Amino acid sequence: MSSTSIISVNFNQPQVTMDFLRSLKANTVDEDVEVILVDNGSREDHGLSFKSVYPELIYIRSEVNLGFAGGNNLGVKAAKGDYLLFLNNDTEIVENMVEVMKEEFKLHPEIGILSPLILYFDQPETIQYAGFTPMNYLTCRNKGIGNMEKDKGQYNLDSRETGYCHGAAMMCRKKDLESVGLMAEHFFLYYEELDWCEKFKKAGKLIWFTGKTRIYHKESISVGKESSIKTYFMTRNRMLFIRRNTNIINTFFFSIYYILFACTKQILAYFIKGRSDLVKWVFKGIIWNFTNSKNSDKLGFKI
Q1: Residues 188, 68 contacting (CB under 8 angstroms)
Q2: pLDDT by residue for the chain (303 residues), tens digit each?
Q3: 35, 97, 140, 196: which has the highest count of C-beta atoms within 10 A?
Q4: Closest CA to 198 of 187, 213, 212, 211
């Protein structure tokens, strides 16, 4: 039986992370798994509390916040499993999820990266993710399949190629990273999993969804619905994603659309909502892309 490394990242969410670890403990009985938790520069070190919940836990503490990709990449370097399962710490899993996902790789060897059905934790009958449509690279927009639908079992037997995986739950083979590489740490937050999916596609692998198993996601606990960090990185990284994954002509036409239409619309929405404090972060996200290379390590935001 092939082993699996479950990798997750914690940032100032000890109680949420302990609930996550309890979920893993209860639902991976008799499965060959190791659990790696990376603490991403949290204010307090709760390593002992985490290990009291999951004694076999491999706990890695970074003194600085490395971002979503950086934290997960640190976990990859410690992983010994043949399969890597990346789970947000604000998720809870179901029984046999790991084995069901591994079975998909055996049934479909062409899979590069795989995500399960995702439901909202607080609304467990409501679907968050059942796949994504392909990306329109001129607008950097696509659609979520199944989003906000009531779960009636309509995706339970689905096993299919999809546009992108969802960063809350992704599985891949460790050996594939030899050709694909790790997640790009340039993004810090948002779009890194989409960029990673593009890398898998370029390596000849398929992006896959399965409805045969599921997770429950406590959405937006880390950052919040509206915040300066979310506004900045969502603005910055949408353009960065296009710069990294399309040619200069596409990037030029996208930039015209993005600045004149999409960002203008966002700014107007912030004024209407009374959130004029967020407008400057839209501008900062745009300006970063005109003052930094697409491979720059500069975040442009003080973490």
Answers
A1: yes
A2: 579 999 999 999 999 999 999 999 999 988 899 999 999 999 999 999 999 999 999 999 999 999 999 999 999 999 999 999 999 999 999 999 999 999 999 999 999 999 999 999 999 999 999 999 999 999 999 999 999 999 999 999 999 999 999 999 999 999 999 999 999 999 999 999 999 999 999 999 999 999 999 999 998 544 457 899 999 999 999 999 999 999 999 999 999 999 999 999 999 999 999 999 999 999 999 999 999 999 999 999 987
A3: 196
A4: 187
Cα–Cα distance, 42 to 298 (Å, whole number): 21
β-partners of residue 86 are 7, 170
For 65, residues 6+ apart whose C-beta sits below 8 A from its C-beta are: 11, 40, 41, 71, 303
- Residue 106: partners with Cβ closer than 8 Å, 6 or more residues away: none
Q: What is the DSSP string of 144-211?
A: BSSTT-B-SSTTTT-EEE-S--BTTEEEEEGGGHHHH-PPPTTSSSSSHHHHHHHHHHHTTPEEEEEE
Q: For residues 237 and 191, is the Cβ–Cβ distance under 8 A?
A: yes
Beta pairing partners, 83: 4, 173
**H or E element in which residue 97 lies:** helix 97-107
Task: Give me the long-range contacts of 141-146 (CB less than 8 A, separation at least 24).
Answer: 145/209, 146/117
- Furthest-apart CA atoms within the chain: distance in Å: 56
The tokens for 249 are 């002509």
pTM: 0.95
229 Cβ neighbours under 8 A, 6+ residues apart: 189, 223, 301
Distances (CA, A) of 119 to 21, 53, 150: 18, 25, 10
If you search the block for the tokens 């790789």, which residue do you land on?
A: 105
Q: Which helix (H) or strand (E) holds 165?
A: none
